[in-house]
Write a structure and sequence with these properties.
By secondary structure, the protein is an alpha/beta fold. 46% of the residues lie in helices and 12% in strands. The protein has helices at 3-6, 19-32, 86-98, 108-114, 130-136, 162-175, 177-187, 212-223, 231-238, 242-252, 257-275, 280-286, 292-302, 307-314, and strands spanning 8-12, 36-41, 47-48, 54-55, 59-60, 70-73, 101-104, 122-123, 141-142, 148-151, 154-157. A seven-stranded mixed beta sheet has the order 5-2-1-6-7-11-10, sandwiched between helices. A two-stranded antiparallel ribbon has the order 3-4. β1 (8-12), α2 (19-32) and β2 form a beta-alpha-beta unit. The longest helix has 19 residues, at 257-275.
């Protein structure tokens, strides 16, 4: 592939595209320079974004007959998933199969999956849509906490602003770390943000349990995260066996009782770290995490960052 083709970028846009999914990566690539970026729709006509802003395009997807360096597929509004014309999916399949690399932002991963480009690969999408992506496409290994995932020539990113992280990674790959760092500084964003996307989710958004016994346990843990929530104690409160309680957790929530307790305690610790200046060790004791080292391990496991780093970034000024 010639050098000029390596930096030829086609952005696939359809009706209802999330504006920031598109604007973030395009802004990064434009700020870096050295890229030819074209917006292409199925028929070459302007499209309306999720915000109502009308986007003019450079060409129809069928006009792109040469092999391009990068194809970017921004995400549509979630309500539009599964309703895109087959012609759009076919064009994504055609362009992506030949491109040097194909990328998606947020729910754009669903379009790549529909096109068969994620089969047998690891991928990610917006944290709130990861379960849906895994259910619809069981041949895709979904990584729910990743900001972006590279698997061969396919790169998928998490929700909305994660498209900026993805684009910065592409710039670093193409032009080096110094250029990517300069772009990140200009846009006032992290070159590599700390932690995964679970730090932006709310753990309280777990599926509503159908079992009254499980609901009792969840309510008790959430009400007092720092209490003793051993498996035996939780099972006794629910009046079921430990084995049955574990089965209920796995069946209805997809996690173990211990994982649920840890995540609730991390959520409680996050709130304290953000809102007050209590020491890390005191926060750990208050939230049932025991010691600062235990809390550090739990934060790394759940959020991908340390309590100190989390407080520095998210605490109230």
């Amino acid at each position: 592939m010639a050098d000029e083709d390596r930096h030829d970028v086609v952005v696939v846009v359809g009706e209802g595209v999330v504006l920031l999914d598109l604007a973030g990566p395009v802004q990064v690539l434009s700020s870096a320079g050295g890229y030819r970026v074209r917006l292409a729709s199925l028929d070459g006509r302007a499209v309306r974004s999720d915000t109502g802003v009308v986007l003019s395009v450079d060409c129809a997807l069928s006009d792109v007959v040469e092999r391009v360096g990068t194809v970017v597929v921004p995400g549509p509004a979630p309500g539009l998933l599964g309703r895109f014309p087959s012609g759009l999916i076919a064009e994504i399949r055609r362009l992506g199969g030949a491109a040097r690399r194909i990328t998606s932002v947020c729910t754009g991963a669903f379009l790549l999956a529909e096109a068969g480009l994620l089969a047998g690969r690891q991928a990610t999408t917006h944290w709130s849509m990861c379960v849906d992506l895994a259910a619809r496409f069981p041949d895709v290994a979904v990584r729910p906490d990743a900001i972006f995932v590279r698997d061969g020539q396919v790169v998928t990113s998490a929700g909305v602003t994660a498209g900026i992280d993805l684009a910065l990674a592409l710039v670093e790959e193409d032009w080096g770390a110094d250029v990517a760092r300069s772009v990140a500084r200009h846009l006032v964003v992290f070159l590599r943000r700390p932690g995964g996307q679970s730090q932006f989710s709310v753990w309280g958004d777990v599926p509503a349990p159908r079992s009254p016994a499980l609901r009792t346990v969840l309510d008790t843990v959430a009400a007092e995260p720092g209490a003793d929530h051993s498996l035996a104690g939780m099972a006794a409160r629910a009046m079921v066996s430990e084995r049955h309680l574990t089965r209920l957790f796995r069946r209805e929530l997809g996690i173990t009782p211990g994982q649920y307790v840890t995540r609730v305690r991390v959520e409680a610790a996050r709130t304290l770290l953000e809102s007050c200046d209590v020491g890390v060790e005191a926060v750990a004791r208050r939230c049932g995490l025991g010691s600062d080292e235990t809390m550090r391990r739990a934060f790394l496991q759940v959020l991908g960052t340390t309590p100190t780093a989390y407080r520095q970034r998210f605490a109230d000024p």
